[in-house]
Task: structure prediction
Amino acid sequence: MDYQNRAGSKFGGGGVASQSATNADRRERLRKLALESIDLDKDPYFFKNHVGSFECRLCLTVHQNDGSYLAHTQGRKHSTNLARRAAREQREGKNQDPSSMPGAMGVQVKKQTIKIGRPGYKITKVRDPLTRQMGLLFQLQFQEITPGVVPRVRFMSAYEQKIEEPNNDYQYLVVAAEPYQTCAFKLQAREVDRREEGKYWTWFDEDSKQFWVQIMFKTEREERFSGVPGLAPMQM
Result:
């Protein structure tokens, strides 16, 4: 930190640091410390979205630059969620080495699945009655889904797909479930609201074999001022 040229200090002396200067210096020190111990390319929770921001998939937080994300990984919230995830995986037995299980040979066999085509689907436009947010409700039919399999869903940027020319104005919602072919829906490149329960959710009905996905887009005001301190989303 620059103690000499701070306002209100004598030449050669050190003035009193303001609260904002202290916080900025602390974040910079945390970022440098994290760079020495964290490789972002190997971080499974680090994700750069289609608008150029950085997301933590573990804590569901959005950061404007990599320095902010690295400082977040050194904080209490991220450390607590890591401990919870490790405890849950240990409880469910996900961290158990397959080669140590009885009868296991330690050889990974790639499963071959015969695809049977695309599922039937229905798309409905929805609107939040309070916030007036626009959204989409997807209903997919998986009548021949493999027993015990739950459909998975993820968002994909325009530069991840190889079907058409990349366009920054669009993103893709990808749904996968064996033995069906993976299907993708082309959406506007708008930020999905994940802050509250009921905005973004998925549900699979094992009896009717229907998979439901609802997404709500943030309003234009929320997208424009999401990174501006002190400007909270407008409540309707």
Q: What stands out?
A: The longest strand covers residues 120-127. The CA atoms of residues 28 and 67 lie 8 Å apart. Residues 231-236 have pLDDT under 50 and may be disordered.
